Design the sequence.
């Protein structure tokens, strides 16, 4: 039985980590900023993600896969933080549910697409945001979420259908006048999925 390969020398680990940081810290910060309440919280998420990356530098994939790998680390950090917040606020949430009877309408500046997205479950929202905000392909999304690309395809198809259903419900209800979307990509007919609900085509799929 052959002996395990020795770990890389410290200088090599430092060089790999530096290259990883230079290549991913900006998109990782953007990923975090879009998912937390304040820039300071986003900075904490990014810092913790790079601590994990340093500890597991030998596991970090090379090339283009490094970015979705780091998104996956940040996603798990955010999930752990949310679980902690949920435990601390569980009693307040139960009281709020009992007291609040009327949900205030969305802000006037919110588009129908954003309101429809907010009606979806957390998993659907995250999947569609990885497509719209991070512009990831299916194989990259699979790496972020820790699932197969086939599962991504199925879940994305279902998420897009649910988004279409919510857009249609908003259109039929007519409770709020449509607000302009924040980008031209969002300006779609309310009976079809927005353009950003389709993932970027990877080189493998092209």
Sequence:
């Amino acid at each position: 039985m052959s002996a395990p390969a020795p770990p890389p020398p410290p200088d090599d680990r430092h060089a790999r980590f530096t290259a990883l940081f230079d290549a991913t810290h900006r998109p990782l910060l953007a990923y975090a900023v879009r998912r937390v309440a304040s820039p300071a919280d986003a900075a904490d998420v990014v810092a913790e993600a790079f601590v994990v990356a340093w500890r597991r530098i030998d596991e970090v994939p090379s090339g283009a896969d490094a970015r979705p790998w780091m998104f996956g680390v940040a996603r798990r950090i955010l999930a752990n933080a949310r679980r902690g917040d949920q435990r601390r606020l569980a009693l307040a949430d139960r009281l709020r549910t009992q007291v609040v009877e009327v949900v205030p309408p969305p802000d006037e500046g919110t588009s129908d697409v954003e309101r429809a997205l907010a009606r979806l479950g957390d998993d659907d929202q995250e999947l569609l945001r990885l497509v719209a905000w991070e512009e990831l392909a299916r194989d990259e999304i699979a790496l972020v979420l820790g699932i197969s690309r086939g599962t991504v395809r199925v879940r994305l198809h279902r998420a897009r259908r649910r988004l279409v259903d919510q857009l249609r419900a908003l259109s039929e209800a007519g409770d709020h006048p449509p607000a302009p979307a924040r980008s031209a990509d969002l300006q779609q007919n309310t009976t079809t999925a927005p353009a950003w609900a389709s993932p970027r085509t990877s080189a493998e799929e092209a």
Notes: DSSP finds eight helices and no strands in the chain. The two ends are 43 Å apart (CA to CA). The chain has two domains: 10-98, 106-197.
